[in-house]
Every structure is written in structure tokens, then in C-alpha cells.
């Protein structure tokens, strides 16, 4: 936490002052017109006052979301990034921004919660808004404890400001932080309605997150806790059976602008490119898309790409197969996750008849910015987190994108994740199950991804390894994979170490010539002497300590307690809402 000043407590008060309307997540306080004494007076003002928690405080977490979640985990290749080589230190700017962003969320959520609690608005709307605040707060702590391990707890900003204890906070043991997250979500569920407007957090959204928290906490003691797994299963099953939500029929539809607020999306950052408020927008396309993907000159992610290891998890072996293998892949998640040679996409560049990956690179009559050079060192670029060009953006949400600004939602918790949480939790400590409902949940996710599967392919027994792989394919590039490693490292660090150090995390050599020849002649001819995977780079040094990221150096300077052993806090008796 940024302990050298009261930045987030003060900023939360300033930003939580008032808004003009409440029909979308752009609406936010206008400091010139309101203060805490004359805002949060009506239902509309309360709803408007919580809207910005769905985007702005999370803005500086975006890059860390990919680098930690996907690069560190071996799903994404990002050049010389320290996240690729496990050499991240406390001065890394993405780490710093990620940490400060999470503490900002907590500060904002605390302050908005307190302001709404004293409002004369209707109790039903106050409860809804306070429940949303608490869910966002719980999510921020969930990221903090899985990223940094033992962390301080800031329960109430006002009290911290009054007693001046920001720079004197002690770390709290991970087990207590998890208990605090659970307590916070339980309170959120007491307050939230069972259904709400599209895109807003409701009871079942918070319950789905609680199921994930219990699944993660289950291993915190060093071995799996059957009671925690049973609770994870129970909460996940309630969401599956009673929320009324269903998986979308088509996997790739989940990630399109038109489905920003689909029933499959339980919790998401709801960005907007409208208005003049910087930090309310999604900028991930800039970091991840190939140069020239949109018209704004703001794409510089072409040199990175999906890792060779993730490609092979999808069954793609670029130097051993022909393009027909992945163009006609039965798992629809493959093309919905990664651009590969020969693949085309009707939902990108719709005004040009669709997007063709190789034509984009080599045909300057189709793409004026075509360089004629393959950028990606792994021969693949990401599809997720991209909206396309300006016309695609208009078609999806009715308004244009702009420089480093788009409105594509970033899904943090999806219904398919809850299905897989249920399947895994139902295994208990045995790590396998023949329970029909667990297998049904797993198979629903798999069958949606591979529509050609019929019931004859439904397994009679489900293993932990089945779900482990399925989670990787289903949630690839959604910022989740590293945190799967973290939770498993609680009780089986050697498994995680072995898997991470055996990954293909490096680049290919010679793919540019292979791709250009294929585009020109439609002949896929691999010269093994000139086209190969570079296996000369040593595996990263992964140890049991690698699953806890360092605190930002500046935080440690201003609060040396962060380098001391954590304390135990009885959160249930110390804190209340």
C-alpha cells in the first residue's frame, strides 16, 4: 500500500462526490458541483456514486493483470519481461501500479460505502450499492493476498485517517486475510439483491466469487481442507442451479462488445470510451494488438504473443502440423484465443469483410499499415481483449473508440469458471470424482467449447488433472492462470515448480519466412535447419518463494513493518459492517 501519504483515502473522498445520471458505468462524481454533505441523497445518486468502482480505480491494474496472470504463468510471451524470467523486483513499475491500484480500490470502496450508509435514499438501493462496494473490496483483497501473501487490512479509511496509522500497519497472516475476504463477501450477499440491472453485481455474482475464495483458501494450511472444498462446491452449485444464468452458446461471443453485459459475465470491469474521464476506459488493445490493428496509432503489442506452451496445450504444433490442423480445430477456444496463420475472423474489421491474420501482415491493399514482417516471436497474437477497429466498436456499442480508449468489458469472473470450481471442489481431497453433477458441470464447459462432442464423450470419472487443463484452456488470457498456480502452491509447490520450469516459454526462429511463403504460395514447408523452437534459453529459476511477489520498494521504505513477520488478527471480532 502507498504508505507515504494519504493519497487513496483523500482521493476516494474526492471522487465519491456526486454524479449527473446513472444509466451507465461512465457516470461518476463531478467534484465542482457536489460534496459529501449534498450528494448521496437520492437512489439515482447512490447508484451513480458507485458506478466508477466498476472501472477507474482498477485502471492501473490492467497491465499487471496480464503480466502477472499470463506472462508469469507461462501463457504469454512478452519479450524480455522480468515476469517471463521470474526476476520481478520491488521497483518494477507494473508491479507498483498494480499494487497501488488494488489499494485504491479498497480506499474508494470503503469511502463510498460509508457515504451511502448514511444516505436518506431508499434502503433497498442503499443495500444494493453497499453490497457492490463490499464485493469490489473483497475482490481487491483477493488479488492482494494471492499476489503478495500476508498483507495489511484497511477496514475503515476514516479511522485510519483520524488515527494516522497508515504508515504503521502490520501485515496480517494470509489465513486471516482470507477470513476477512469471506466475511466481507458474506456481508455483501446479505445486502445484494438476487438480480439487478445487466452488468451490475448481484447476490449470485458475490456468491460465485465466494466459491472461488473458498477453493483457493482450501490449501492455505499446507494440505487440502475438505470443509473449505465443500463450501466452495455448495456456493458454486447454488449459482449454477438458482441464478438463472446460462453459458452463451458460442464461446467467442463472450468477448464481443455487444455481449459486454451478458448473463455469463458475473463480475467484470465495465469500461467506457465515452466522456473525458481518463481511467474509465479499457486500454488493453494497445498493449496486446498488432501495430495497425485500429486507426488510432495506439497498438504496440504485436511483438509479444501466446506462448508456445499454451499453443501446444491447445494441440497446436506450428512446425509439426499444417495450418489445416488449427484452422479446423474442434476446440473453438483455440481461434477465439489466438491468431494463427490461415485464421480469419468475421467479427473484426467487419467493414472490410472480416479480419485475415496473414493478409493483415502482408497485404498493404487490405491493411495500409502492413509491414510485410511477422512481429510475434511465437507466431501467434492474442484475440481476447481486442475489439477491432473503430467501425467494429460502433457496431458493438454504438459509439467509436479513441486513442487508448475502448469500451470492451474485461471479464473477471465468468459462469464457466464457477462450473469448473464446482467440478474441482466436488472432488474433495480425493482429487477425483464420479459424481454426476460435477461431471455435468465440467462437460457443459467442454461441450460448449467443442460442439462436436456428444454424450458418448462424457467421462464417467473426472480427475483433478482434467479440470486443471480445462481451466487453462477456458480462461487463457483472462488474467487467472497465475492465481491457479498460487492456490495450488499452498499445498503442492513442487507440482507448480515442475510444471512452470518444464514449459516452453521461449520463442521460435524463422517463422517469418515460413509465414510469408505460406501466404504467397499456400505451401506450408518447414525447413528444420532454419525454423525451430529456441531451446537455448534456460528455464526460469522457480522456487517455493516465487509464488509471492515482492512489495513495492517505496512501500517498504515508508512502512518497514511490511518486512516483519505478519500478525494474527481475529477479524470476526475486530471488525464489523
How would you explain this protein's 3D organization?
The strands form six sheets. A two-stranded antiparallel ribbon has the order 1-3. It is globular, with a radius of gyration of 23 Å. The protein has 24 helices and twelve strands. Helices cover 43% and strands 5% of the residues. Among the domains are: 7-192 and 547-574, Serine Threonine Protein Phosphatase 5, Tetratricopeptide repeat; 284-406, no CATH class. Helix 1 (7-15) packs across helix 5 (93-117) and helix 17 runs antiparallel to helix 18 (436-449). The chain is mainly alpha-helical.
Annotate the secondary structure layout.
Elements: H1 7-15, H2 43-51, H3 62-71, E1 76-77, H4 82-85, H5 93-117, H6 123-148, H7 157-163, H8 174-191, H9 203-217, H10 226-242, E2 265-269, H11 284-288, E3 305-306, H12 308-313, H13 324-327, H14 333-337, E4 338-339, E5 344-345, E6 355-356, H15 357-362, E7 381-382, H16 390-397, E8 410-414, H17 415-425, E9 432-433, H18 436-449, E10 462-463, H19 464-475, H20 481-489, H21 493-501, E11 508-509, H22 511-521, E12 532-533, H23 553-558, H24 571-574
Antiparallel strand pairs: 1-3, 2-8, 4-7, 5-6, 9-10, 11-12
Helix pairs in contact: 1-5, 2-6, 3-5, 5-6, 6-8, 6-9, 8-9, 9-10, 9-17, 10-17, 17-18, 17-19, 20-21
Amino acid at each position: 500500500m502507498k504508505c507515504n501519504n494519504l493519497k487513496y483515502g483523500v482521493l476516494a473522498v474526492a471522487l465519491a462526490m456526486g454524479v449527473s445520471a446513472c444509466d451507465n458505468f461512465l457516470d461518476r462524481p463531478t467534484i465542482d458541483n457536489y460534496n459529501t454533505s449534498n450528494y448521496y441523497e437520492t437512489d439515482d445518486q447512490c447508484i451513480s456514486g458507485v458506478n466508477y468502482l466498476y472501472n477507474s480505480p482498477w485502471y492501473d491494474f490492467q497491465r499487471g493483470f496480464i503480466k502477472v496472470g499470463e506472462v508469469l504463468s507461462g501463457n504469454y510471451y512478452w519479450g524480455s519481461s522480468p515476469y517471463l524470467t521470474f526476476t520481478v523486483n520491488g521497483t518494477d513499475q507494473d508491479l507498483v501500479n498494480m499494487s497501488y491500484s488494488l489499494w485504491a480500490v479498497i480506499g474508494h470502496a470503503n469511502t463510498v460505502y460509508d457515504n451511502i450508509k448514511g444516505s436518506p435514499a431508499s434502503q433497498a438501493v442503499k443495500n444494493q450499492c453497499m453490497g457492490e462496494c463490499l464485493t469490489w473490496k473483497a475482490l481487491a483483497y483477493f488479488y492482494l493476498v494471492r499476489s503478495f501473501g500476508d498483507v495489511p487490512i484497511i477496514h475503515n479509511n476514516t479511522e485510519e485517517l483520524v488515527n494516522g496509522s497508515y504508515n504503521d500497519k502490520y501485515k496480517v497472516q494470509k489465513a486471516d486475510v482470507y477470513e476477512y475476504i469471506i466475511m466481507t463477501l458474506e456481508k455483501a450477499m446479505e445486502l445484494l439483491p438476487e438480480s439487478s440491472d445487466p452488468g451490475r453485481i448481484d447476490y449470485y455474482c458475490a456468491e460465485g466469487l465466494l466459491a472461488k475464495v473458498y477453493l483457493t483458501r482450501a490449501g492455505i494450511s499446507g494440505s487440502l481442507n475438505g470443509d473449505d472444498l465443500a463450501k466452495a462446491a455448495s456456493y458454486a452449485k447454488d449459482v449454477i442451479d438458482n441464478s438463472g444464468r446460462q453459458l452463451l452458446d458460442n464461446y467467442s461471443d463472450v468477448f464481443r462488445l455487444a455481449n459486454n453485459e451478458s448473463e455469463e459475465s458475473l463480475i467484470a470491469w465495465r469500461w467506457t470510451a465515452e466522456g473525458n474521464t481518463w481511467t474509465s476506459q479499457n486500454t488493453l488493445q494497445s498493449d496486446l494488438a498488432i501495430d495497425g490493428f485500429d486507426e488510432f496509432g495506439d497498438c504496440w503489442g504485436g511483438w509479444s504473443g501466446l506462448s508456445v506452451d499454451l499453443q501446444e496445450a491447445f494441440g497446436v504444433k506450428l512446425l509439426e502440423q499444417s495450418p489445416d490442423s488449427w484452422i479446423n480445430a474442434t476446440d473453438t477456444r483455440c481461434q477465439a484465443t489466438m491468431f494463427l496463420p490461415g485464421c480469419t475472423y468475421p467479427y473484426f474489421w467487419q467493414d472490410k469483410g472480416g479480419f485475415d491474420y496473414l493478409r493483415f501482415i502482408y497485404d498493404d491493399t487490405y491493411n495500409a499499415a502492413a509491414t510485410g514482417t511477422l512481429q510475434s516471436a511465437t507466431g501467434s497474437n492474442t484475440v481476447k481483449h481486442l475489439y477491432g477497429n473503430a467501425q467494429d466498436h460502433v457496431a458493438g456499442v454504438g459509439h467509436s473508440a479513441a486513442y487508448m480508449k475502448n469500451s470492451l468489458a474485461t471479464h473477471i469472473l465468468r459462469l464457466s469458471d464457477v462450473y469448473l470450481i464446482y467440478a474441482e471442489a466436488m472432488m474433495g481431497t480425493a482429487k477425483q470424482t464420479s459424481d454426476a453433477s460435477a461431471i455435468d458441470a465440467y462437460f457443459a464447459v467442454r461441450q460448449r467449447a467443442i460442439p462436436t462432442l456428444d454424450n458418448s464423450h462424457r467421462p464417467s470419472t473426472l480427475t483433478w488433472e482434467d479440470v486443471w487443463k480445462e481451466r487453462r484452456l477456458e480462461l487463457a488470457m483472462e488474467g487467472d492462470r497465475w492465481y491457479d498456480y498460487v492456490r495450488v502452491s499452498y499445498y503442492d509447490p513442487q507440482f507448480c515448480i515442475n510444471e512452470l520450469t518444464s514449459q516452453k516459454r521461449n520463442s521460435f526462429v524463422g517463422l517469418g519466412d515460413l509465414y510469408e511463403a505460406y501466404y504467397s504460395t499456400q505451401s506450408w514447408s518447414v525447413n528444420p535447419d532454419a525454423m525451430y523452437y529456441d531451446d537455448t534459453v534456460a528455464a526460469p529459476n522457480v522456487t517455493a518463494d516465487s509464488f509471492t511477489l515482492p512489495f513495492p520498494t517505496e512501500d517498504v521504505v515508508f512502512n518497514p513493518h511490511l518486512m516483519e513477520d505478519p500478525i494474527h488478527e481475529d477479524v470476526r471480532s475486530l471488525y464489523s459492517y
